[in-house]
Structure formats: C-alpha cells, structure tokens
Amino acid sequence: MNKSKKIVIIGGVAAGASCAARLRRLDETAQILILERGKYVSYANCGLPYHIGGVIADREDLIVTKPEKFSAWFNIEARVCSEALSIDRDGKRVLVKNKEKEYYEDYDILVVATGAKAFSPKTEGDENEKVRHLWTLSDMDGIIASLNADSPSVTIVGGGFIGLETAENLRSRGVGVNLVQRSGHVLPVFDAEMARPLADELKDMGVNVFFGRVVKKYEEADGGIYTVLDDGKRLFSNLVISSTGVKPNSKLALEAGIECSKDGYIKVDEHMKTSDPNIYAAGDVVEIAEPIFNSRTHIPLAGPANKQGRIVADNIAGISSSYKGTYGASVLKLGKLTAASVGMTEKRLKSAGKKYIKIYTHPSSSASYYPGATRMDAKLIFSGDGTILGAQIIGQSGVDKRVDTIAQAMFSGIKAGDLGGLELSYAPPFSSAKDPVNYLGYVASNVLSGKSTPVYAGEIPEGAVILDVREPSETSNGKIPGSVNIPLGQLRSRLNEIDKNCLIVCSCQVGLRGYLAERILKQNGFNAANLSGGYLTWKALNS
Description:
By secondary structure, this protein is an alpha/beta fold. It has 14 helices and 33 strands. The protein has 4 domains: about 5-115 and about 245-315, FAD/NAD(P)-binding domain, CATH 3.50.50.60; about 130-245, FAD/NAD(P)-binding domain (3-Layer(bba) Sandwich); about 330-450, FAD/NAD(P)-binding domain (3-Layer(bba) Sandwich), CATH 3.50.50.60; about 455-540, Rhodanese-like domain (Oxidized Rhodanese, domain 1, 3-Layer(aba) Sandwich). The longest helix is centred in the middle third of the chain and has 15 residues, at about 300-315.
C-alpha cells in the first residue's frame, strides 16, 4: 500500500485554508496539517472594520472555521499558535515553535501561505502603543478596547481600502476621525478626477481630510497622541491607525533560498509552484501574472488568494490547474457610494509610458424614469486596438455588477467596442435597455471607428471653441468659462455662427448631446470633437 502524502501548509486565513479544504475533497488519504502562528486559523479579515462599526455585531461571525471544525469535517489538523521558524528544504522539514517547545515537522509537499503584513514607513514615535494597524483580529480587538474615552477620536493615516472602510465605521459609532493622505486623492486604484466624490462623501460624514500631507512624527499626549504633519499641523486623537500599505510575509521563503522578487514576493509559475519543486505558495505573499501587459504584479485581495489556494490543491492532487493572473477587480462601500475598479489606472499607464484612449460617461443606474434611479460616473480606458486596459465606476447603485461585467470581458479578451453587443439583463428597476456597460461600448466603438474624437476636460487644445449645446436654463447653473452656447435643437439653423477654421469642442452635461452636435458639425464640414463626459467631468476636474 502506498504511503499517503503529507502536506504541510504554513498559514491559514484565505489561501491556506482554501487549499487545505479543497485538497481534502480531492484526496481522502493525504495527511494535511495547517500551521498558523495566530490564534485563529480561518477568519474574515475583510470584515474587521465592520465589526468595529457594529455592522457585524457578533465577533464570532468573523471566524469562518475553527480547528475543531477542520478536524471534524475535513480530517485536517490545524495547529494554532504554532509559528514556522525556518524551512529546511534539503531535509524537507519545518522548524515550528509553539507555546511549549520547538520541534521539526516533516513534509512531502509544503505550501507557503504566509500572507502579508501591515507596513508603514519608519516614523519618529511610531513605537507608541497608541499607533496601531488593522490587519488581524487581535488588531481589531485592541482598537475596540482603546475606544473607551468619553469622546473618542482616531487619526487614520492612509486613504486606501482599509483606511476608508475604517473611517466610515468609526464615524458610524460616533468616533471623531481625521484622515491623512499623502497624495491628492483617496483610493489609489482610482484616478484623481474619479475619486473626488469619495472625498466629498468623507467630508459629509464629518471626517476631517488632510490631502497632500505626510506624517513627520508622533508625540505622546495626555490621554492620547499628537500626529504631527509636514506642514507643522498637530492632530490630537486618542489613537492612530496606520493604513499605508502592506508588504509580503516572505522572510521564511527568503531565508530558505526560495526565489523572490526584488520587493520580496515569492515567485511562482502558473501552477503556483515556487523555485523548489516540492514547495507551492499562494495568497498575498506571491507575485503573480499581470495579463494586460504580460508583466508581474501582486494583489493583496481575498478573491485571488482563495482561487490560488484552490489551484495549489488541484496541482498537489494531480489535476493540472493554472492561475491566469489577475486584473485586480475591487469594490468599496463608502457611505451612500460604491466605488469599483478593474485593471490599470490612467496614472499607472502614464508612468509606464503606455499609450491609451479614455472615455467618460455618466449613465443612470436604472431606467431614468424609474423611482430611485441615480447617476453613475464611469471611466473606461482602452488601447488603440480596443483592448480594455481598465475601468472605474462610482455611484450609489449597480456599480459592482458593471465593473464585474467589464472584468469578465477583459478576462475573455472582449474589446472595448464590443461591450455594446453584450447581452445583459434588463428591467426598469435594474438598468436601461442600453445598459451602462453597453453604452460604454457604443462610445468606445464610435471613438475607435473615428466617428467621434474625444477631447478631455484637462486637455482642451489652445484656440479651440467650446460649443455648449445645453439649454440656457442648464448653463445658468454653471458652464465652462469662455464657452459659446447654442442649444442642440438650434444648431442646424445657426451653423453660420460657427467658425470653420477652428476646432469646435462640443460640450453638454454628460456627453450625449455633445456627440450629436459633433456628428452634425462633422457632416457639415466642420473640424469637431466631443468633450468626453461633458460638463460634469469638467466640473470634477475644476471644482
């Protein structure tokens, strides 16, 4: 009888736990051991801010699977409070430390799923116990225990996913919040003009937002701590939560000589195998394929981590399974807004020297005549051959499913102009007959075919005439300085008022009437273009 394989998995939570459970479903004979240095082997760390805010009332709801359940359901041994100290690749064993002793654990196959850890630039005073992170259940417990002042206040450093979610949830329980952001906008997976509504939402919540500021030091204070900014401003709070990023927990792999990237992420092939044929890796600790430009990246998200864990299990069990990379689809709730994105931002494309085309639309979340319809702000970025490079959408409803649709189009190789042909479900409470994704496809198709020439709010050519084709009642509420107003319904009869020697940039509220005006002008011999996204996009850049 063949000896059963022994698989040791270092790290639980997403990738490790997913790998273990899938492997058992595929192989009833394997010996499976999870080594987790923390107290909990599988928990929902994405839910931590929501327990702080009371949205998830019961802390136990965050714990997905306990060691007892792993044993009873899956015949998997999960050892908590057991830290892997080193990997002996030649001896195929791991040095483990628990509360009582150090010992070696042999393996046939090793899976490294050690994840990532919160990271902050070294700052004077950051060793103060009032400067914390929010990454684990223990972090969450410590933060909740610290919010015991009569009028508690917190300074959050960093406006990414965790920073924004924590800010919202702290405000929901009446905690005063300062938010310090190094750049000029929050949420780095969004471009600046698209992220502006999030800043407005934060301010409406009562969050004090400080853009373009860097923390120089932290100073102890009676009953709290001062966060001292680079402009000298001193922010008092009872607690600081640093949310400036993460870095891989790859020390074990590095010390064992497993190949890693210059940033410390473990290099894996498409089967999630490392440079050691007996060791796999998955989750936030690995470097993975970036399929847009066939490069490498790292995405600390639970969805990819769970998928990678499953793929590792498949390959250990003899099923050839590949991870094709990630486009980084993500979504955030902030107050009444939802913000979702996928793929590259314009900023990232510019820094990489890549050429691209962008369009803006402002569609309705559902049929405009249906009660409760709200506006979305959408941005689609694509190459000259129509390859979709990225999308960003923000609004109150239906945002996530539109970005998910675009993400699947990217995964399937569907081009920007072909989004218009996608068959998507329709009923007035959920969409328009021309879904916002379809509409992005129509606009992209017009641009790619040359029927429309986009001009952007921050890049209007010098000497161009801005033709505002809205009604006078609309322009009275705001217009682009220097623009000329001829309502669309009057345009054909007033063509003689327009200079054929100039570029005419047509503008309306959201871009549709601007496109209609552009088509009229082009077919009458004018050099015309359309202001992508219309006045609303211009206003977002200039308010």
